[in-house]
Amino acid sequence: MQVRNEVKELRLLFEVLQILDSASDLSDNLETVLEVMAEHTGMMRGVITLLDERHGEIAIEAAYGMSPEAQSRGRYKLGEGITGKVVESGKPLVIPNVLVEPLFLNRTGSRGRKEAVSFVCVPIKMEGRVIGALSADRLFAESEALEEDMRLLTVLASLVAKAVRNRQEHHRMLEENRRLLDVLLEQTRPGMFVGTSPGLRAVLTQLAQVAPTSATVLLLGESGTGKELAANTIHAGSPRAGHPFVKVNCAALPEGLIESELFGHEKGAFTGAAGPRKGRFEAADGGTLFLDEIGELSLSTQVKLLRVLQEHEFERLGGLETRKVDVRVVAATSRNLEQMVRDGLFRQDLFYRLNVFPVSMPPLRERPEDVHPLIEHFLEKYGHTIGKRGLRVTPEAEALLLAHPWPGNIRELENVIERAVILTTDGLIRPSLLPPSMQASCPLSSLHGTLPEALERVERQLITQALRECRGNMGKAAQALGISERVMGLRMRKFALDYKTFRRWRS
Protein backbone atom coordinates (compact mmCIF):
# COMPACT_ATOMS: atom_id res chain seq x y z
CA MET A 1 0.00 0.00 0.00
CA GLN A 2 2.79 2.39 0.93
CA VAL A 3 4.65 1.65 -2.30
CA ARG A 4 1.51 2.26 -4.32
CA ASN A 5 1.01 5.65 -2.62
CA GLU A 6 4.62 6.62 -3.26
CA VAL A 7 4.31 5.74 -6.96
CA LYS A 8 1.07 7.75 -7.15
CA GLU A 9 2.79 10.69 -5.49
CA LEU A 10 5.74 10.53 -7.89
CA ARG A 11 3.36 10.51 -10.84
CA LEU A 12 1.63 13.58 -9.43
CA LEU A 13 4.91 15.45 -8.94
CA PHE A 14 6.12 14.52 -12.43
CA GLU A 15 2.86 15.75 -13.98
CA VAL A 16 3.04 19.00 -11.98
CA LEU A 17 6.61 19.62 -13.14
CA GLN A 18 5.55 19.16 -16.76
CA ILE A 19 2.68 21.64 -16.31
CA LEU A 20 4.85 24.30 -14.65
CA ASP A 21 7.58 23.91 -17.28
CA SER A 22 5.17 24.70 -20.12
CA ALA A 23 5.18 28.12 -21.77
CA SER A 24 1.54 28.85 -20.95
CA ASP A 25 0.32 31.64 -18.68
CA LEU A 26 1.32 30.98 -15.05
CA SER A 27 -2.20 31.46 -13.65
CA ASP A 28 -3.56 28.91 -16.14
CA ASN A 29 -0.74 26.53 -15.24
CA LEU A 30 -1.43 26.89 -11.51
CA GLU A 31 -5.12 26.17 -12.02
CA THR A 32 -4.17 23.02 -13.93
CA VAL A 33 -1.80 22.03 -11.09
CA LEU A 34 -4.65 22.34 -8.57
CA GLU A 35 -6.95 20.31 -10.80
CA VAL A 36 -4.36 17.54 -11.16
CA MET A 37 -3.70 17.66 -7.41
CA ALA A 38 -7.41 17.18 -6.72
CA GLU A 39 -7.63 14.27 -9.17
CA HIS A 40 -4.66 12.47 -7.59
CA THR A 41 -5.55 13.10 -3.93
CA GLY A 42 -9.32 13.32 -3.87
CA MET A 43 -9.25 16.84 -2.42
CA MET A 44 -12.42 18.91 -2.89
CA ARG A 45 -10.89 22.34 -3.41
CA GLY A 46 -7.44 23.83 -3.88
CA VAL A 47 -6.28 27.44 -3.65
CA ILE A 48 -3.00 29.25 -4.34
CA THR A 49 -2.72 32.74 -2.85
CA LEU A 50 0.13 35.19 -3.41
CA LEU A 51 1.24 38.13 -1.28
CA ASP A 52 1.29 41.64 -2.72
CA GLU A 53 4.08 43.08 -0.57
CA ARG A 54 3.43 46.66 -1.67
CA HIS A 55 -0.13 46.64 -0.27
CA GLY A 56 0.28 43.92 2.34
CA GLU A 57 -2.63 41.98 0.84
CA ILE A 58 -2.98 38.30 0.06
CA ALA A 59 -5.13 37.46 -2.97
CA ILE A 60 -6.13 34.28 -4.80
CA GLU A 61 -3.94 33.63 -7.84
CA ALA A 62 -5.51 30.31 -8.87
CA ALA A 63 -8.23 28.02 -7.54
CA TYR A 64 -9.96 24.70 -8.18
CA GLY A 65 -13.54 23.90 -7.14
CA MET A 66 -14.40 27.56 -6.64
CA SER A 67 -16.40 30.02 -8.75
CA PRO A 68 -14.79 33.21 -10.12
CA GLU A 69 -17.07 35.25 -7.84
CA ALA A 70 -15.86 33.33 -4.82
CA GLN A 71 -12.24 33.78 -5.90
CA SER A 72 -12.68 37.56 -6.12
CA ARG A 73 -13.74 37.59 -2.45
CA GLY A 74 -10.63 35.72 -1.34
CA ARG A 75 -8.51 38.62 -0.06
CA TYR A 76 -6.77 38.70 3.31
CA LYS A 77 -4.50 40.92 5.35
CA LEU A 78 -1.37 39.47 6.96
CA GLY A 79 -2.40 37.54 10.07
CA GLU A 80 -6.06 37.46 9.01
CA GLY A 81 -7.73 34.04 9.01
CA ILE A 82 -5.89 30.76 8.47
CA THR A 83 -4.29 31.88 5.22
CA GLY A 84 -3.12 35.19 6.70
CA LYS A 85 -1.64 33.38 9.74
CA VAL A 86 0.29 30.94 7.54
CA VAL A 87 1.71 33.70 5.30
CA GLU A 88 2.59 35.83 8.33
CA SER A 89 4.23 33.04 10.35
CA GLY A 90 5.64 30.93 7.53
CA LYS A 91 4.35 27.79 9.31
CA PRO A 92 1.75 25.32 8.01
CA LEU A 93 -1.62 24.86 9.72
CA VAL A 94 -3.90 21.82 9.72
CA ILE A 95 -7.57 22.27 10.66
CA PRO A 96 -9.33 18.89 11.17
CA ASN A 97 -12.83 20.46 11.10
CA VAL A 98 -13.43 24.01 9.88
CA LEU A 99 -16.87 24.13 11.59
CA VAL A 100 -15.26 24.29 15.02
CA GLU A 101 -12.30 26.54 14.13
CA PRO A 102 -12.87 30.23 15.06
CA LEU A 103 -9.98 31.43 12.86
CA PHE A 104 -11.58 29.97 9.73
CA LEU A 105 -13.31 32.87 7.95
CA ASN A 106 -14.83 31.20 4.87
CA ARG A 107 -14.50 34.57 3.21
CA THR A 108 -14.96 33.15 -0.28
CA GLY A 109 -18.32 31.64 0.75
CA SER A 110 -17.47 28.51 -1.22
CA ARG A 111 -18.17 26.15 1.71
CA GLY A 112 -21.58 25.40 3.13
CA ARG A 113 -22.34 26.34 6.75
CA LYS A 114 -22.67 22.72 7.76
CA GLU A 115 -19.95 21.35 5.49
CA ALA A 116 -17.56 19.45 7.75
CA VAL A 117 -14.29 19.52 5.88
CA SER A 118 -10.64 19.42 6.87
CA PHE A 119 -8.36 22.25 5.76
CA VAL A 120 -4.60 22.16 5.15
CA CYS A 121 -2.61 25.32 4.42
CA VAL A 122 1.16 25.52 3.83
CA PRO A 123 3.40 28.52 3.05
CA ILE A 124 4.93 29.08 -0.36
CA LYS A 125 8.50 30.19 0.23
CA MET A 126 11.04 31.67 -2.14
CA GLU A 127 14.63 32.11 -0.94
CA GLY A 128 13.49 31.98 2.70
CA ARG A 129 10.75 34.58 2.16
CA VAL A 130 7.03 33.72 2.31
CA ILE A 131 5.31 34.80 -0.92
CA GLY A 132 1.95 33.07 -0.53
CA ALA A 133 0.16 29.91 0.52
CA LEU A 134 -1.16 26.65 -0.92
CA SER A 135 -4.30 25.26 0.71
CA ALA A 136 -6.69 22.39 0.13
CA ASP A 137 -10.02 21.06 1.41
CA ARG A 138 -10.93 17.42 1.84
CA LEU A 139 -13.79 15.63 3.51
CA PHE A 140 -13.27 15.21 7.24
CA ALA A 141 -10.16 13.04 7.60
CA GLU A 142 -8.04 11.41 10.27
CA SER A 143 -5.02 13.25 11.59
CA GLU A 144 -2.55 10.86 9.91
CA ALA A 145 -4.08 11.52 6.50
CA LEU A 146 -3.94 15.25 7.14
CA GLU A 147 -0.27 15.06 8.09
CA GLU A 148 0.39 13.23 4.82
CA ASP A 149 -1.55 15.95 2.96
CA MET A 150 0.55 18.63 4.63
CA ARG A 151 3.78 16.91 3.56
CA LEU A 152 2.61 16.57 -0.04
CA LEU A 153 1.36 20.17 -0.21
CA THR A 154 4.70 21.39 1.15
CA VAL A 155 6.50 19.67 -1.75
CA LEU A 156 4.03 21.11 -4.26
CA ALA A 157 4.43 24.57 -2.72
CA SER A 158 8.18 24.45 -3.38
CA LEU A 159 7.51 23.67 -7.05
CA VAL A 160 5.00 26.52 -7.25
CA ALA A 161 7.58 28.88 -5.70
CA LYS A 162 10.07 28.07 -8.46
CA ALA A 163 7.42 28.76 -11.12
CA VAL A 164 6.54 32.10 -9.50
CA ARG A 165 10.21 33.03 -9.34
CA ASN A 166 10.61 32.24 -13.04
CA ARG A 167 7.61 34.45 -13.84
CA GLN A 168 9.00 37.30 -11.75
CA GLU A 169 12.36 37.00 -13.48
CA HIS A 170 10.62 36.99 -16.88
CA HIS A 171 8.63 40.10 -15.94
CA ARG A 172 11.81 41.74 -14.66
CA MET A 173 13.54 41.12 -17.98
CA LEU A 174 10.53 42.42 -19.91
CA GLU A 175 10.45 45.54 -17.74
CA GLU A 176 14.17 46.08 -18.24
CA ASN A 177 13.73 45.70 -22.00
CA ARG A 178 10.86 48.20 -21.92
CA ARG A 179 13.00 50.60 -19.91
CA LEU A 180 15.90 50.31 -22.34
CA LEU A 181 13.51 50.75 -25.25
CA ASP A 182 12.07 53.89 -23.67
CA VAL A 183 15.60 55.23 -23.17
CA LEU A 184 16.44 54.57 -26.79
CA LEU A 185 13.20 56.10 -27.98
CA GLU A 186 13.96 59.20 -25.95
CA GLN A 187 17.52 59.32 -27.29
CA THR A 188 16.34 59.04 -30.87
CA ARG A 189 13.82 61.91 -30.73
CA PRO A 190 13.27 64.06 -32.60
CA GLY A 191 15.74 63.55 -35.38
CA MET A 192 16.06 59.81 -35.72
CA PHE A 193 13.48 57.03 -35.77
CA VAL A 194 9.92 58.13 -36.41
CA GLY A 195 6.90 55.83 -36.34
CA THR A 196 5.04 53.32 -34.24
CA SER A 197 4.69 50.32 -36.56
CA PRO A 198 5.27 46.83 -35.13
CA GLY A 199 8.25 46.37 -37.45
CA LEU A 200 9.97 49.51 -36.16
CA ARG A 201 9.15 48.69 -32.53
CA ALA A 202 10.67 45.22 -32.98
CA VAL A 203 13.88 46.75 -34.35
CA LEU A 204 14.10 49.27 -31.50
CA THR A 205 13.62 46.47 -28.98
CA GLN A 206 16.53 44.56 -30.54
CA LEU A 207 18.71 47.67 -30.50
CA ALA A 208 17.84 48.25 -26.84
CA GLN A 209 18.88 44.70 -26.02
CA VAL A 210 22.21 44.74 -27.85
CA ALA A 211 23.32 48.36 -27.28
CA PRO A 212 24.64 47.89 -23.70
CA THR A 213 26.73 44.87 -24.73
CA SER A 214 30.00 44.70 -26.67
CA ALA A 215 28.61 42.37 -29.35
CA THR A 216 29.30 42.97 -33.04
CA VAL A 217 26.10 43.97 -34.84
CA LEU A 218 25.23 43.38 -38.50
CA LEU A 219 22.52 45.69 -39.84
CA LEU A 220 20.69 44.26 -42.86
CA GLY A 221 18.26 46.02 -45.15
CA GLU A 222 17.65 47.98 -48.30
CA SER A 223 19.24 51.35 -48.93
CA GLY A 224 17.51 54.16 -47.09
CA THR A 225 15.95 52.07 -44.31
CA GLY A 226 17.89 53.79 -41.51
CA LYS A 227 20.89 51.53 -40.93
CA GLU A 228 23.17 54.47 -40.07
CA LEU A 229 20.59 55.76 -37.58
CA ALA A 230 20.47 52.28 -36.04
CA ALA A 231 24.26 52.27 -35.70
CA ASN A 232 24.10 55.70 -34.05
CA THR A 233 21.45 54.42 -31.67
CA ILE A 234 23.57 51.41 -30.69
CA HIS A 235 26.53 53.67 -29.95
CA ALA A 236 24.41 56.17 -27.98
CA GLY A 237 22.97 53.39 -25.82
CA SER A 238 26.31 51.72 -25.10
CA PRO A 239 29.00 52.34 -22.44
CA ARG A 240 31.09 53.74 -25.34
CA ALA A 241 28.73 56.69 -25.87
CA GLY A 242 31.32 59.18 -24.59
CA HIS A 243 33.92 57.96 -27.08
CA PRO A 244 34.21 58.41 -30.86
CA PHE A 245 31.62 57.19 -33.33
CA VAL A 246 33.42 56.81 -36.66
CA LYS A 247 31.67 56.09 -39.95
CA VAL A 248 33.14 54.51 -43.08
CA ASN A 249 31.23 54.00 -46.31
CA CYS A 250 33.08 51.07 -47.84
CA ALA A 251 31.34 51.57 -51.20
CA ALA A 252 32.51 55.18 -51.50
CA LEU A 253 36.24 54.44 -51.21
CA PRO A 254 38.38 53.21 -54.12
CA GLU A 255 40.00 49.82 -53.71
CA GLY A 256 43.46 51.40 -53.54
CA LEU A 257 42.51 53.66 -50.61
CA ILE A 258 40.28 51.49 -48.43
CA GLU A 259 43.15 49.77 -46.60
CA SER A 260 44.83 53.08 -45.84
CA GLU A 261 41.50 54.57 -44.66
CA LEU A 262 40.82 51.70 -42.30
CA PHE A 263 44.29 50.99 -40.92
CA GLY A 264 46.27 54.17 -41.66
CA HIS A 265 49.69 54.40 -43.28
CA GLU A 266 53.28 55.34 -42.59
CA LYS A 267 55.38 57.91 -44.43
CA GLY A 268 56.39 56.65 -47.86
CA ALA A 269 53.92 53.76 -47.86
CA PHE A 270 52.77 54.88 -51.31
CA THR A 271 53.17 57.84 -53.67
CA GLY A 272 51.82 60.89 -51.90
CA ALA A 273 52.17 59.51 -48.38
CA ALA A 274 54.17 62.47 -47.09
CA GLY A 275 53.72 61.53 -43.43
CA PRO A 276 52.15 59.01 -41.06
CA ARG A 277 48.36 59.01 -40.79
CA LYS A 278 45.93 57.29 -38.42
CA GLY A 279 43.23 55.09 -39.92
CA ARG A 280 39.59 54.84 -38.90
CA PHE A 281 40.26 52.00 -36.45
CA GLU A 282 42.69 54.14 -34.48
CA ALA A 283 40.33 57.11 -34.65
CA ALA A 284 37.55 54.95 -33.20
CA ASP A 285 39.68 53.50 -30.37
CA GLY A 286 37.49 53.16 -27.27
CA GLY A 287 34.36 53.84 -29.31
CA THR A 288 32.37 52.41 -32.21
CA LEU A 289 33.31 51.96 -35.87
CA PHE A 290 30.42 51.83 -38.33
CA LEU A 291 31.31 50.01 -41.54
CA ASP A 292 28.55 50.78 -44.04
CA GLU A 293 28.13 48.64 -47.17
CA ILE A 294 30.65 46.12 -45.90
CA GLY A 295 29.73 43.80 -48.76
CA GLU A 296 31.75 46.03 -51.08
CA LEU A 297 35.10 45.18 -49.47
CA SER A 298 37.59 43.18 -51.53
CA LEU A 299 38.65 39.73 -50.38
CA SER A 300 42.15 40.99 -49.52
CA THR A 301 40.74 43.72 -47.28
CA GLN A 302 38.33 41.21 -45.71
CA VAL A 303 41.32 39.15 -44.55
CA LYS A 304 42.82 42.12 -42.70
CA LEU A 305 39.46 43.14 -41.25
CA LEU A 306 38.97 39.62 -39.91
CA ARG A 307 42.29 39.80 -38.08
CA VAL A 308 41.33 43.08 -36.37
CA LEU A 309 38.00 41.62 -35.26
CA GLN A 310 39.67 38.47 -33.92
CA GLU A 311 42.90 39.80 -32.47
CA HIS A 312 42.13 43.53 -32.00
CA GLU A 313 45.44 44.37 -33.64
CA PHE A 314 46.83 45.51 -37.02
CA GLU A 315 49.72 47.27 -38.75
CA ARG A 316 49.53 50.50 -40.66
CA LEU A 317 50.12 50.30 -44.39
CA GLY A 318 53.88 50.34 -44.89
CA GLY A 319 54.55 49.91 -41.16
CA LEU A 320 55.92 47.11 -38.98
CA GLU A 321 54.62 48.15 -35.55
CA THR A 322 51.63 46.11 -34.35
CA ARG A 323 48.96 48.39 -32.86
CA LYS A 324 46.23 47.38 -30.42
CA VAL A 325 42.74 48.89 -30.52
CA ASP A 326 39.55 48.54 -28.51
CA VAL A 327 36.80 49.09 -31.05
CA ARG A 328 33.24 47.87 -31.29
CA VAL A 329 32.27 47.19 -34.90
CA VAL A 330 28.78 47.76 -36.28
CA ALA A 331 28.53 46.71 -39.92
CA ALA A 332 25.76 47.27 -42.45
CA THR A 333 24.93 46.01 -45.90
CA SER A 334 22.14 46.10 -48.45
CA ARG A 335 23.53 42.98 -50.13
CA ASN A 336 22.87 39.32 -49.40
CA LEU A 337 26.08 38.31 -47.66
CA GLU A 338 25.08 34.66 -47.38
CA GLN A 339 24.68 34.47 -51.15
CA MET A 340 28.01 36.27 -51.57
CA VAL A 341 29.63 33.64 -49.34
CA ARG A 342 28.20 30.89 -51.58
CA ASP A 343 29.47 32.76 -54.66
CA GLY A 344 32.97 33.10 -53.17
CA LEU A 345 32.73 36.91 -52.96
CA PHE A 346 32.68 37.18 -49.16
CA ARG A 347 34.70 35.22 -46.63
CA GLN A 348 32.65 32.76 -44.62
CA ASP A 349 34.76 33.24 -41.47
CA LEU A 350 34.31 37.02 -41.65
CA PHE A 351 30.57 36.63 -42.17
CA TYR A 352 30.29 34.49 -39.03
CA ARG A 353 32.39 37.02 -37.11
CA LEU A 354 30.12 39.88 -38.19
CA ASN A 355 26.81 38.02 -37.89
CA VAL A 356 26.84 37.80 -34.09
CA PHE A 357 23.69 39.89 -33.70
CA PRO A 358 21.92 40.53 -37.03
CA VAL A 359 19.17 43.17 -37.16
CA SER A 360 16.94 43.42 -40.23
CA MET A 361 15.69 46.93 -40.99
CA PRO A 362 12.19 46.75 -42.52
CA PRO A 363 11.59 48.63 -45.80
CA LEU A 364 9.09 51.49 -45.73
CA ARG A 365 6.55 49.54 -47.81
CA GLU A 366 6.26 47.13 -44.85
CA ARG A 367 5.66 50.07 -42.49
CA PRO A 368 2.76 51.88 -44.23
CA GLU A 369 1.39 53.23 -40.95
CA ASP A 370 4.67 55.14 -40.48
CA VAL A 371 4.37 57.12 -43.72
CA HIS A 372 2.10 59.77 -42.20
CA PRO A 373 4.28 60.42 -39.12
CA LEU A 374 7.34 60.60 -41.37
CA ILE A 375 5.65 63.13 -43.65
CA GLU A 376 4.76 65.26 -40.62
CA HIS A 377 8.29 64.93 -39.28
CA PHE A 378 9.98 66.00 -42.51
CA LEU A 379 7.50 68.85 -43.03
CA GLU A 380 8.44 70.19 -39.62
CA LYS A 381 12.15 69.56 -40.10
CA TYR A 382 12.53 71.29 -43.47
CA GLY A 383 9.89 73.89 -42.74
CA HIS A 384 12.01 74.96 -39.76
CA THR A 385 15.24 74.83 -41.77
CA ILE A 386 13.89 76.90 -44.66
CA GLY A 387 11.72 79.17 -42.53
CA LYS A 388 8.27 78.04 -43.71
CA ARG A 389 5.64 77.39 -41.05
CA GLY A 390 2.20 75.77 -41.04
CA LEU A 391 2.93 73.43 -43.95
CA ARG A 392 0.13 71.05 -44.98
CA VAL A 393 -0.28 68.26 -47.50
CA THR A 394 -3.43 68.29 -49.61
CA PRO A 395 -5.55 65.10 -49.63
CA GLU A 396 -4.72 64.53 -53.30
CA ALA A 397 -0.97 64.75 -52.67
CA GLU A 398 -1.27 62.60 -49.58
CA ALA A 399 -3.07 59.89 -51.57
CA LEU A 400 -0.17 59.82 -54.01
CA LEU A 401 2.36 59.64 -51.18
CA LEU A 402 0.46 56.76 -49.60
CA ALA A 403 0.17 54.82 -52.85
CA HIS A 404 3.86 55.14 -53.71
CA PRO A 405 5.88 51.94 -53.06
CA TRP A 406 8.98 53.91 -51.88
CA PRO A 407 11.74 51.77 -53.37
CA GLY A 408 14.22 54.26 -51.92
CA ASN A 409 12.58 53.94 -48.50
CA ILE A 410 12.81 56.72 -45.89
CA ARG A 411 15.60 58.52 -47.72
CA GLU A 412 13.44 58.80 -50.84
CA LEU A 413 10.47 60.08 -48.82
CA GLU A 414 12.67 62.66 -47.09
CA ASN A 415 14.03 63.92 -50.42
CA VAL A 416 10.50 64.19 -51.87
CA ILE A 417 9.24 66.22 -48.90
CA GLU A 418 12.33 68.47 -48.84
CA ARG A 419 11.86 69.26 -52.54
CA ALA A 420 8.17 70.02 -52.04
CA VAL A 421 8.87 72.30 -49.06
CA ILE A 422 11.37 74.26 -51.15
CA LEU A 423 8.91 74.62 -54.04
CA THR A 424 5.71 75.56 -52.17
CA THR A 425 4.79 79.24 -52.08
CA ASP A 426 1.59 79.05 -50.02
CA GLY A 427 2.39 76.35 -47.45
CA LEU A 428 0.41 73.64 -49.29
CA ILE A 429 2.05 70.50 -50.66
CA ARG A 430 0.10 69.73 -53.84
CA PRO A 431 0.54 66.88 -56.37
CA SER A 432 2.24 69.32 -58.73
CA LEU A 433 5.10 69.71 -56.22
CA LEU A 434 5.83 66.00 -56.14
CA PRO A 435 8.25 64.33 -58.58
CA PRO A 436 6.80 63.85 -62.09
CA SER A 437 6.83 60.06 -61.64
CA MET A 438 4.37 60.45 -58.77
CA GLN A 439 2.02 62.93 -60.41
CA ALA A 440 -0.24 60.37 -62.08
CA SER A 441 -3.87 61.28 -62.19
CA CYS A 442 -4.73 57.91 -60.77
CA PRO A 443 -2.72 56.06 -58.13
CA LEU A 444 -3.16 52.85 -60.11
CA SER A 445 0.05 53.71 -61.91
CA SER A 446 1.93 53.07 -58.70
CA LEU A 447 0.41 49.69 -57.99
CA HIS A 448 2.68 46.69 -58.42
CA GLY A 449 2.98 43.05 -57.43
CA THR A 450 0.22 40.48 -57.43
CA LEU A 451 -3.47 41.36 -57.54
CA PRO A 452 -4.04 40.45 -53.84
CA GLU A 453 -1.03 42.58 -52.82
CA ALA A 454 -2.25 45.54 -54.87
CA LEU A 455 -5.80 45.25 -53.50
CA GLU A 456 -4.44 45.06 -49.96
CA ARG A 457 -2.44 48.27 -50.48
CA VAL A 458 -5.52 50.05 -51.83
CA GLU A 459 -7.61 48.83 -48.88
CA ARG A 460 -4.98 50.00 -46.40
CA GLN A 461 -4.73 53.35 -48.17
CA LEU A 462 -8.50 53.92 -48.05
CA ILE A 463 -8.76 52.98 -44.37
CA THR A 464 -5.77 55.15 -43.46
CA GLN A 465 -7.16 58.10 -45.42
CA ALA A 466 -10.59 57.75 -43.75
CA LEU A 467 -9.04 57.60 -40.28
CA ARG A 468 -6.95 60.67 -41.03
CA GLU A 469 -9.92 62.67 -42.29
CA CYS A 470 -12.02 61.60 -39.27
CA ARG A 471 -9.14 62.27 -36.86
CA GLY A 472 -9.09 58.71 -35.56
CA ASN A 473 -12.87 58.40 -35.02
CA MET A 474 -13.43 54.75 -35.96
CA GLY A 475 -17.21 55.07 -36.14
CA LYS A 476 -17.14 57.98 -38.55
CA ALA A 477 -14.37 56.38 -40.62
CA ALA A 478 -16.33 53.13 -40.89
CA GLN A 479 -19.44 55.06 -41.95
CA ALA A 480 -17.49 56.96 -44.59
CA LEU A 481 -16.19 53.67 -45.99
CA GLY A 482 -19.60 51.98 -45.86
CA ILE A 483 -18.54 49.21 -43.48
CA SER A 484 -19.47 48.27 -39.92
CA GLU A 485 -17.36 49.27 -36.92
CA ARG A 486 -16.66 45.58 -36.30
CA VAL A 487 -15.24 45.14 -39.81
CA MET A 488 -13.33 48.41 -39.37
CA GLY A 489 -11.75 47.08 -36.18
CA LEU A 490 -10.77 43.83 -37.89
CA ARG A 491 -9.16 45.69 -40.79
CA MET A 492 -7.27 48.00 -38.43
CA ARG A 493 -5.87 45.01 -36.55
CA LYS A 494 -4.93 43.42 -39.85
CA PHE A 495 -2.91 46.49 -40.89
CA ALA A 496 -1.63 47.25 -37.35
CA LEU A 497 -3.28 50.69 -37.33
CA ASP A 498 -3.90 52.58 -34.08
CA TYR A 499 -6.71 55.17 -34.13
CA LYS A 500 -4.84 57.27 -31.52
CA THR A 501 -2.11 58.01 -34.04
CA PHE A 502 -4.55 59.78 -36.36
CA ARG A 503 -5.77 62.22 -33.72
CA ARG A 504 -2.61 64.29 -34.20
CA TRP A 505 -2.76 64.61 -37.96
CA ARG A 506 -3.78 67.77 -39.70
CA SER A 507 -6.29 67.91 -42.52
From TrEMBL:
Signal peptide: none annotated. SUPFAM superfamilies: GAF domain-like, Homeodomain-like, P-loop containing nucleoside triphosphate hydrolases. One of its GO terms (biological process) is regulation of DNA-templated transcription. Residues 193-422 form the Sigma-54 factor interaction domain. One of its GO terms (molecular function) is ATP binding. The keyword Nucleotide-binding applies. InterPro entries: AAA+_ATPase (IPR003593), AAA_lid_NorR (IPR058031), GAF (IPR003018), GAF-like_dom_sf (IPR029016), Homeodomain-like_sf (IPR009057), HTH_Fis (IPR002197), P-loop_NTPase (IPR027417), Sigma_54_int (IPR002078). It comes from the Bacteria. Keywords: ATP-binding, DNA-binding, Nucleotide-binding, Transcription, Transcription regulation. Gene3D superfamilies: 1.10.8.60, 3.30.450.40, Homeodomain-like, P-loop containing nucleotide triphosphate hydrolases. The keyword tRNA-binding does not apply. This is Sigma 54-interacting transcriptional regulator. It comes from Candidatus Bilophila faecipullorum.
